[in-house]
Amino acid sequence: MSRPSVPQAPPRILLLEDSPLDADLIAAHLDRLVPAPDIVRATGRADYAAALEAGGFDVILSDYSLPGFDGMMALDLAKAAAPDTPFIFVSGVLGEEIAIDSFRRGATDYVLKQRLIRLPAAIERALAETREREERRRAERQLELLVAELSHRVKNTLAMVMSIARRTARGSGSVAEYEEALISRLRALAEAHALLFEANWGDTSLRQILERTLDPFRRDGERTIGLSGPRVPLAPKAALALSLILHELVTNAMKYGALSSANGRVDVSWTLDESGGRPMVDLVWRESGGPEVAPPTRAGFGSTLVDRSIRYELDGTADLDFAPTGVVCRLRFVTAV
User: Fold this and answer.
1) Which residues carry this modification: 4-aspartylphosphate (predicted)?
2) Is 285 helix (H, G, I), strand (E, B) or coil?
């Protein structure tokens, strides 16, 4: 389906012309433009300079020969005040050397008064070239922003990977245990990045993060993990941090908690609190049916990651309850950070 055309605003044209007759002839030819232009006429240096200072013109037309003033001076003033605005000479006589010099100094085109029929086409071409330049600059600025954002994200990701690697090493008893834990955590990070890439690094839903992180741990044909809650959009930074937290919780449940037992299950529920200045999510991770739980004797990497991620990455709080019937983790965090 083609995109609907957007109506163009009438071009504003500054016309520097001292002759009323020539000005009327030029205006008559400009009426052929669609839409019809808005013409502001200046007859001398003072009102021309005032018009340039006011600005807002799409094209500048100037005679070359003016009493007490000439076209080259008008061109210099225009390039100083509005360097991106097309400047076209409209003159009765313009020699080859003057024409070449005017182009060197920034003129866009010239039209002889004997051939004013060329003027509408020259203006349309100049406006089209201006639009192309603006579009090119806009694309270049967007590319610069994307490169800067990519660099920022890569640095953040590498810093996160290094932190995960260091902390996993501290909590591992052997090389094999370190390798298994590190690969598992990096895989969780990669899955979160893949989901954000699919969403074009825009907001993604909390349910999608949960499903993407927890589905690999579901037993075939069994509903061992239940999800319940409204649709909540998450910003990319929040989604990455939450995916790592969830991975730690589910890994712990598989090794020591409810999912290590045939009858165990995990229920994740959440609500959205929009009563304050920022939307907050209240998420509860509840395990049941597994082996009896005892509080850990020391804080491992998993609990440290949960605590630090929720506080520093999600500006929230975490409450881990190692109840005998199953771990309960309550998280409260903002949707966008």
Assistant:
1) 63
2) strand
Q: In the chain, which ranges are E strands?
A: 12-16, 38-42, 59-62, 65-66, 69-70, 87-91, 109-112, 204-205, 225-228, 233-234, 265-273, 280-288, 317-323, 326-334
Whether 160 maps to a domain, the answer reads no
Is residue 94 included in any domain, yes or no? yes
- 249 within a domain of the structure (yes/no): yes
Mean pLDDT of the chain: 83
Same domain, 21 and 128: yes
Distance, CA of 307 to CA of 14 (rounded, Å): 64
Give the number of domains in the chain: 2
Kindly report, residue by residue over 76-118, the tens digit of the pLDDT: 999 999 999 999 999 887 777 888 888 899 999 989 999 999 9
Please report which confidence band the pLDDT of residue 221 belongs to, taking 50, 70 and 90 as the band edges.
low
CA distance 273 to 68: 72
CATH number at residue 74: 3.40.50.2300
Flag whether 33 is in a domain. yes
Helix, strand, coil abundance in the chain, percent, nearest 5: 50, 20, 30
336: which 2 tokens?
A: 């966008």
Strand-pair partners of 330: 284, 319
CA 161/CA 178 separation, integer angstroms: 14
Which of 81, 108, 135 is at the close of a domain?
A: 135
State percent of the chain over pLDDT 70: 84
Could you list the residue range(s) of the whole structural domain that residue 314 is in? Answer: 202-334
End-to-end CA distance of the chain: 37
